[in-house]
Design a protein that fits this description.
15% of the residues lie in helices and 55% in strands. The chain has 213 residues and is α+β, with helices and mostly antiparallel strands. It has one domain. The N terminus and C terminus are likely disordered. The N and C termini lie far apart (82 Å). Strands 1, 2, 3, 4, 5, 6, 7 and 8 form an 8-stranded antiparallel β-sheet that branches. The protein contains 2 helices and 8 strands; from the N terminus they run αββββββββα.
């Protein structure tokens, strides 16, 4: 074999080896994961009272604050034989009640954390919500004397948040690999889009350019 042919064969060998190696490195990561979530809530209640004396009546204000906290135990397992990396995201949902009685579901609290697992490995992570607080205010008015047909009356308002549920997502990039919730409606596209939006950083607003005179 001539020297020129030998150099050509060696060159072709390394070229094939390089592209074969590059193909191996660029192969997509295979994701096979399992996700399990257990939720536990803790409730407390606090009551305060105050009195206010007026000329014709006295008023007693009673405030009841009901607080509830949710703790999630999240178990993740990598079912492949390769090391893999994910992003874990969690969202706590509130049924928010306004003073006028209106109610709506909102994401009260959320967080995220990177997770890396060796092939066949698993991990358990615990996260806790901030408190959901629902306040009930009752005002009892009592007339000082039965004068001008005055009668007592009472008013009550409720506002704040009550725990409604959770959403847990396990993602690789923008792909959702697994999802869990206490209610199937919270896994519909509408809520998944709300989760995506709330996790985005706030856009930086640029001040308007000054006009030149």
């Amino acid at each position: 074999m001539s020297k020129t042919v030998e150099q050509l064969v060696v060159s072709l060998f390394f070229t094939v080896a390089f592209f074969a190696g590059a193909g191996t490195l660029s192969a997509e990561q295979r994701h096979e994961v399992s996700l399990s979530v257990t939720a536990e809530t803790t409730q407390t209640r606090d009551r305060t009272q105050s009195s206010d004396e007026k000329d014709n009546f006295s008023a007693t204000t009673t405030t009841d604050a009901e607080s509830e906290t949710c703790s999630l135990e999240i178990e993740i397992s990598n079912a492949t034989d390769q090391k893999d990396a994910y992003q874990l995201e969690w969202f706590f949902i509130s049924k928010k009640k306004a003073d006028n009685g209106d109610e709506k579901f909102v994401i009260l609290d959320f967080g995220k954390s990177p997770v890396s697992l060796l092939g066949g490995a698993g991990i358990v992570q615990t996260v806790q919500s901030k408190p959901f607080v629902l306040t009930t205010k009752t005002i009892d008015r009592t007339p000082r004397a039965a004068k001008n047909n005055n009668v007592g009356n009472s008013t009550r308002t409720r506002s704040g948040d009550t725990y409604a549920g959770y959403i847990v997502l396990l993602k690789a990039g923008d792909e959702i690999l697994a999802k869990e919730s206490n209610e199937s409606r919270f896994l519909e596209d509408e809520w998944l889009e709300r989760c995506k939006t709330v996790n985005q950083p706030a856009a930086k607003r640029q001040p308007p350019a000054k006009k030149k005179n």
